[in-house]
Structures are given as structure tokens and as C-alpha cells.
Specification:
It contains six helices and eight strands. By secondary structure, it is α+β, with helices and mostly antiparallel strands.
């Protein structure tokens, strides 16, 4: 488990199915991810139970973000994905979701910093990257605070309804 004393990043567990069900089926966050349709509990149960946490084999890693209270108890407040893991070029993508009730408390920044430390120290990565829609100012601010810098603009990258919008590709060198 990765922790800074306030939050921890941990492996996906069967107890996370209901939480994932709520997040993955929230249309408000579909626009910032790749979700096109709702997931069933069975689909998420199968995903969790067949999940391969070996980033070298699966080329991705999902970590749950837990908030640690004063008594040491935890509450799951988000998820962080490392995706498109490319050990040959020492990089991977990163995506994050923080529950709406836990936003604007610095937990996303803490999680990104823990993930960067893990990627640098344990995976020996050279860089992380993310793609953020131009209209997603909150996400852009979060990644900028975490040391990511815009390195390019992707024209007509994201489709919403019948229109397209641009996105930024951001990088953080470790």
C-alpha cells in the first residue's frame, strides 16, 4: 500500500464493486473518460475478480484512493489509473477520479504525487502523461499543481453529442 498518512493508494478489492458501479454509471463523468454506456454489477464483479494487478502483463494498473481518518480507518474516495504502460519508453498515462464529495480538499494532488513517486521509484519511469479536455479547467488545474505541463493540443479529440472539442496532452517528467 502506498500512503502519505492522509491518503493511501491500494489494490482493487471485491468490496469496491458497489463504489465502482456508482462512479462508472455516473453520466456526469462519462465525458472525461471513455464510457459510452452503463456497466452492470456483474460486469464490474467479473472485472474486479479477474483483474490482473501486474502492470507489466496487463499494461495498466487501477488503484483505489482511500482517505485515512485520525483512528486509522479508511474511506474510499477515488480511483487512479495507470494506463498505456510502456516500459520500453519508460512512460505511462494517468487518469484520476475523485468522488464529488471529496473534491477540492487536495486529495487528488496527494494521489498524483504518490503515483508519481511509485512510478519513479518502483517502475523506473521517465514520464507520466494525461489527456485533459479543454473545457475541464478543474482537471487541468489539478494536473498543473502536480507538475504536469501542457505539451500539445489535440484538435477535435473528444466527441460529445454531435460536436468535437480539443484536448491537451500534458506531461510530467519524473
Amino acid at each position: 500500500m502506498l500512503t502519505d498518512g492522509t491518503i493511501s493508494l491500494r489494490a482493487l478489492e471485491p468490496i469496491d464493486v458497489d463504489t465502482l458501479y456508482r462512479w462508472e454509471n455516473d453520466p456526469a463523468v462519462w465525458g472525461v473518460g471513455l464510457t459510452l454506456a452503463p456497466y452492470s454489477r456483474k460486469q464490474l464483479w467479473d472485472y474486479v475478480n479477474n483483474y490482473d494487478g501486474d502492470i507489466y502483463a496487463a499494461r495498466q494498473l487501477r488503484l483505489m484512493i482511500d482517505l485515512i481518518n485520525a483512528e486509522g480507518m479508511t474511506q474510499t474516495i477515488g480511483t487512479l489509473d495507470l494506463y498505456d504502460f510502456d516500459p520500453a519508453n519508460s512512460r505511462c498515462g494517468v487518469g484520476i477520479l475523485i468522488d464529488s464529495d471529496a473534491r477540492r480538499h487536495g486529495y487528488g494532488l496527494r494521489a498524483l504525487n504518490l503515483a508519481a513517486d511509485y512510478c519513479r521509484g518502483r517502475l523506473s519511469l521517465h514520464q507520466l502523461y494525461c489527456i485533459v479536455g479543454e473545457e475541464n479547467a478543474a482537471s487541468r488545474r489539478l494536473f498543473e499543481k502536480a507538475g504536469f505541463r501542457i505539451s500539445g493540443r489535440l484538435k477535435s479529440w473528444l466527441m460529445s453529442g454531435n460536436s468535437y472539442s480539443d484536448a491537451y496532452i500534458c506531461q510530467k517528467f519524473l
